[in-house]
Structure formats: structure tokens, C-alpha cells
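Lab notebook: predicted structure, single chain.

Context: the supervisor wants predicted structures on file for every construct in the current expression panel, including those that have not yet been purified. This is the next one on the list. No modifications to the sequence; it matches the entry in the shared construct table.
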Amino acid sequence: MPALAPKIILGRVVGAHGIRGELKVWAEAEGAETFLQIGEVELAGRGYQVAGARPHKRYLLLSLAGICSRNQAEALIGQEVWGAAELLPPLPEGEYYWDEILGLAVYRMDTGAYLGRVTEIIPTAAHDVYVVREGDREYLIPARVEVIQEICLEQGWMNIDPNVGVLETRAV
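Prediction complete. Output recorded below exactly as produced.
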């Protein structure tokens, strides 16, 4: 993977699985197929060939060439897994990679008021939840078509309907 190629985060290593060096990954990319299609990932500034990927409970088990033992896998716990953005498969219209959503400015559709920027995405069983922060305000916004009215990646914003399931909290 060229050093200057735009990269996108695919997940984070949360553990080791077994004794042969498989990594347990909390995946932000959809499915093992994405990792297999990309073919090469980067962890801790080093490139690795993807030798295998398979789902396991709520995680993904990732095998990388050169990581052959549990000790090697454990040394990578906490590392982010990155992949070349141009190798990601295109998504259907209306679906986005997390990296595209993070940092977007969020506005109320009804008043145009600025709420903040998407700083975090929380995956849930039903749908993702966007965490939007500005100053001491924090909003939890369900990533549902009823709430997310419009997204413009080119200009870096999204419009939401704040009357459908949006929760305002205090930022910590």
C-alpha cells in the first residue's frame, strides 16, 4: 500500500483468538469480504497481507501474513486496522462508510441551526448512533432515514429532523 494513499479505518484489534495469531477485530467495515477484497491492511504503521477473514460472534477474525502466534497477535491489541480507501467496494446509494460520516457538520432541517460535528459513531443492534458535539452540548442521533434527511459529503454536512428520536445530553 503506498504510504500516501488515502486510508480509511476498518476496525480495531480488541483481542487475540487461538494460538495461530488470529486477531479479534471490532470491524467498522461491513463483513469479512471487505477485508478480503482490500487484500492488504496497515496496523501500527506496517503493511500486512490479509490471509483470511471470517465472522465470529460480534467480531471479525482476521489472519495476517507474518502474524503466526498468539504473542504476535496480542502485541497488536488496541491497534487500528487501516485500508486503502480506493480499494473499498462502492456502497449502495444512501449508505456511507463511517469515515465519510465522521466530522460532518450537522444542522437542524427545520431551522437550519448548527448542532455540531459528528465525533463518534456507536454501533447498535438496530442501527448506528451518531454522536454530535459542540461545546458542552452533545446529541445522540439515530442513523435512520426518518432522522437523517440529507447528506452532502462534498460540502461536509448533514441535515436532520430533530423531532424524531434525537437525544440531547451533556458532553463530558
